[in-house]
Amino acid sequence: MNQVWNIARKELSDGLRNRWLLSISLLFAVLAVGIAWLGAAASGQLGFTSIPATIASLASLATFLVPLIALLLAYDAIVGEDEAGTLMLLLTYPLGRGQLLLGKFVGHGLILALATLIGFGCAALAIGVLVEDVELGLLIWAFGRFMLSSTLLGWGFLALAYVLSSKVSEKSSAAGLALGVWFLFVLVFDLALLALLVLSEGKFNPDLLPWLLLLNPTDVYRLINLSGFASGGSAAGVMALGGDLPVAGGLLWSCLLLWVGVPLLVAYWLFLRRPT
User: Fold this and answer.
1) To 5 degrees, how large is the angle CA 229–CA 233–CA 235?
2) Percent of the chain having pLDDT more than 70?
3) Which of 66, 113, 176, 274 is least surrounded, with the fewest CB atoms within 10 Å of its CB?
4) What's the rounded mean pLDDT across residues 146-155?
5) What pTM value is reported for the model?
6) What's the longest Cα–Cα distance across the chain?
7) Residue 132 region, left (φ>0) first, then alpha (ψ -120 to 50), else beta?
8) Helix and strand element counts for the chain (H, E)
9) Which UniProt keywords are present, listed alphabetically (predicted)?
């Protein structure tokens, strides 16, 4: 366990030195506060609207940002060490490949978790202090749920980045594949589902479509943050299919956890078979 923590501490130290933690935290804080007060500007309103509307807007933003940041943070975790010649050196120490991978995951995961807590926590604090008559209990519950799910979403894409980094032999290939993974899950997947729904002309089993949302971690994440509010039924586009899912919130959280654990196991399996 000491070896895992030593690797994690090194990754966390690198993140602090490269100002990853500070940059991500500031980005989250500025965007979250801006959305909280300017999110309804398109409808001619300025100022804080409501907690459900703010969480829905923040979840839409985080769906784009969190996966991209996670992939950028970890796409070169293994292949970068290999190209630099340090991977072979690390493996000469009494350090297993699983410990190295887990240590990197813990370090990168801490960076993402702290950035999420600091950045979005600042927005929650600003709302609690500056908005009159805000329901503090609902605010704490909603933002706590949002920050936890955002962290898990980021960890899932960290694990996917390790899969890519363990598979390829060049950093440039890992970067290109990471961008492809981001496009697939954030942009292409939902468009493909909508296209399937339209082109099938009702022939495709409509009961199956909502379950397909669970194959995309970003859709699971959005379903978690849209559920539990009275306005959750106003979801548009492919998210409207999620209302037909006969499942409790616990299954959605379990799916998000699976999107962390399964890719991490796949990355470990690939790393074990990677030549050095």
Assistant:
1) 105
2) 86
3) 176
4) 96
5) 0.90
6) 63
7) beta
8) 12, 0
9) Membrane, Transmembrane, Transmembrane helix
Question: What does the block give as tokens for 134?
Answer: 């805000």
The C-alpha atoms of residue 236 and residue 244 are separated, in whole angstroms, by 13
> Is the separation of the CB atoms in 193 and 206 below 8 Å?
no
**In the predicted model, what is the mean pLDDT of residues 221-232?**
72
pLDDT value at residue 39: 59
Encode 140-167: b = buried (16+ Cβ within 10 Å), e = exposed.
Answer: eebbebbbbbbbbbbbbbbbbbbbbbbb
**Nearest in space to 183 (alpha carbons), one of 218, 225, 221:** 218
Any residues with CB less than 8 A from the CB of 153 and at least 6 apart, and which? 62, 63, 66, 67, 70, 217, 218, 221, 256
Six token digits for residue 203:
């022939």
The answer to whether 106 and 2 are in contact (CB under 8 A) is: no
> Minimal CA–CA distance to 139: which of 220, 50, 79, 70?
50
Query: Of 199-208, 214-223, 263-272, which has the strongest mean pLDDT?
Result: 263-272
CB atoms within 10 A of CB 96: 13
- Nearest CA to 75 among 12, 159, 155? 159
Cα–Cα distance between 198 and 189 in angstroms, integer? Answer: 14
43 secondary structure, DSSP code? G
Give the chain's length.
276
- Joined tokens for residue 115: 């950035």
The 10s digit of each residue's pLDDT in 116-141 is 999 999 889 988 888 888 888 888 99
Tokens 């929650």 label which residue?
124
Residue 239: per-residue pLDDT = 53
Q: CA dist 83 to 76, 117, 135, 171, 269, Å?
A: 9, 33, 52, 8, 20
